[in-house]
Amino acid sequence: MARALVIGLAETGIAVTRVLRAEGWSVVVVEDAPAASPVYAARAEAARAVGADVVESPDASRSAELAAGADVVVPSPLVRATHPAVAAARAERVPVRSEIDLAAERARVPIVGVTGTNGKTTVTSLTAAMLIASGVRAETAGNIGRPLIDAVADATDVLVAEVSSFQLAFSTTLRPQVAVVLAITPDHLDWHDSFEQYAAAKARIFAQQSGEDLVVFDADDPTARRVCAAAPARRIGVSLRADARDCYRVVDDALVYPDGRVLAPLSSMRRSLLHDRTNALAAAAAAFEVGATSEGARAALATYATMPHRVALVGEASGVRWYDDSKATNPDATLRAAMSFDSVVLLAGGRNKGLDLAVLRTAAPRLRGVVAFGESQREVVAAFDGTSIPVVEVEDMHGAVRAADTIARAGDVVLLSPACASFDAYPGYGARGDDFAAEVRTLTEERRR
Question: Which residue among 97, 117, 142 closes a domain?
C-alpha cells in the first residue's frame, strides 16, 4: 500500500487526506500545533474517521522518521522547505508534492490558474462569472477557499483556481490550460528568502505548459513581463496603455481586444478603478480561451460586485467617502488603491511581512494625510519623513477612524488600505475590515443626528 505523509491539518490537509484514503493510500497526518478549538477537533476526527493516523506535536526526529518512510510528502500551504519532514524527504529522495499538483493530475476539465501578488481572488471569481454568464459551467477553487483537490471530481466544464506562492513553491507538475500572472511585487518576504525566490515561485504556474497553452500576464508590470518572457506557452498581455502592442488594453475609455475591437465601455462596468480595469482585462483574456463569449464577459462586467474588503465603499457622510481595503496587506496593493482617487486620507499599519513600507511615499501627491496604527506604525511614519504629509499615530481602529475624520474634507476618500497583515490585532484581514466598517457606521450615524 502506498504511504503518504500530509503536513498540516487545516482545510488543504484534510482534503488531501480524504482523497488519498479514498484511493487506498495509507495516510499519516502530522500537525505541529494542534489547536484547542472545535474546528481543529472536527478535522482531526474526520481524518481518523477515514482511517488516517494523526500525529500531533511531533518532534523533529519523529517528523523526519515519518517522512523517510513515506512514498510521498504533501505539505500544506505555509509549510516551509526547512520543515524537518520536508528536509528529510528531500534527503531520502522522497517526492514532496504540492496539493495543487495532485489535484491537477486528477482533473478531468481544463484548469485556469491565477497567480500574482494582488487581484488574484477578483480575477479568479470574475473569470468564473464570465464563463457562467456565457453558459459554461465553471467553479472556483484553490486559495480562494475550497481546496482544488476537493473540486476536481465535480460536474463542471472549467475549474478556475487561485494559486498562491506557498502552493507553487512545491509545485513540479501543475499544467493549467491558462495561466494568469498578475503583477508580481514584494510580498511574503518573511516566508520566501528573497523577492527573486518569490517571483520564481510564481513562475512555476506556467513551467509545465506547452505551446498549446496560454499565459495571460500584466504587461505593465516589469517582473510579470520578465518572468513570463520565459514561458513555453503562447502569451498575451493586458495593459492600461492605449499603445500597448499585442495586448488586451484600455483605449478611449473602453476595454478593447488586442485587435482594437471594443469589448466593453468603462461606463458599463459596475466599478472601473485602475486596478478594476487590469483585472477585467485579465479575466476576459483567460475566460475567452476556455469558452466565454463577448456577451457573457460584458454581462459579468456589468453585474460583478466588489468583493468584501477590497476597496469596498462602507460609508459616506459630509461629502467624505469611506472605503475598506483591508485585504491590501502589502504596499503595492495600497499604492494601487490610493492612486485610484484624487485626495485620500490613508489608514495604514499592522504587522509588516518584511516589506519596505517606504514605497508608500509614492502616493504622497494623492494624500491629504496618513493615520498610522499597529505594530508597524513607526515604519509608516518613517515612510513619510521629509514630506509635507501629516501623519497621526493612533492606538486602535476607533482612534484611526476618529483621526481620519478630523483630517478629511468634503470630496476626500478615507481609505483603510494597511499595506500590512492584520495579525497584530485581528484574526484576519476580514475582522480588521469589519471593525473599520463598524466604526465608520457609528461615526456616520452620529453625523445624521
Answer: 97
Distances (CA, A) of 257 to 246, 275, 282: 9, 18, 11
Q: pLDDT tens digits for 383-402? A: 999 999 999 999 999 999 99
Distance from C-alpha of 361 to C-alpha of 357, rounded to nearest angstrom: 8
What letters, b where the CB count within 10 A reaches 16 and e where it falls short, cover 83-96? bbbbbbbeeeebeb
* C-alpha 57, offset from chain centre: 29
Enclosing H/E stretch for 64? helix 60-68
pLDDT single digits (tens) 345-389: 999 999 999 999 999 999 999 999 999 999 999 999 999 999 999
On the question of pLDDT at 104 being above 80, the answer is yes
Domain stop point among 97, 121, 136: 97
Where do runs of H (alpha helix) occur along 219-364?
222-228, 274-289, 294-303, 331-338
List Cα–Cα distances, 174 to 31, 93, 100, 240, in angstroms.
Answer: 26, 20, 7, 30
* 173 plus 281 within the same structural domain: yes
Task: To the nearest 10°, report the CA torsion of 69, 22, 24, 13.
Answer: 0
Angle between helix 294-303 and 274-289 (nearest 10): 150
**What SS3 class is residue 310?**
coil
Q: Starting at the edge strand that comes first in sequence, how are the strands of the sheet with 3-7 ordered?
A: 53-56, 26-31, 3-7, 72-75
Q: Please check the confidence at residue 1 and state whether its pLDDT lies above 90.
A: no
Range(s) of the domain holding residue 417? 312-448
Question: Beta strands of 297-400 (E only): which ranges?
Answer: 312-317, 320-324, 344-349, 367-373, 391-393
Residue with cell 517571483: 199
Question: In whole numbers, what is the pLDDT of the chain averaged over residues?
Answer: 97
For residues 145 and 148, give the distance between their C-alpha atoms in angstroms, rounded to a whole number: 9
Tell me phi and psi for residue 251, to 5 degrees.
-135, 125
Q: Which three cell numbers stand for residue 126?
A: 470574475
Question: Do 73 and 84 belong together in one domain?
Answer: yes
Tell whether 192 and 225 lie within a shared domain: yes
Q: Give the count of alpha carbons within 13 A of 238, CB side only.
A: 23
Phi, psi of 136 (to 5 degrees): -100, 130
Length of the chain: 449
b/e map 225-244, b = 16+ CB within 10 Å: bebbeebebebbbbbbeeeb
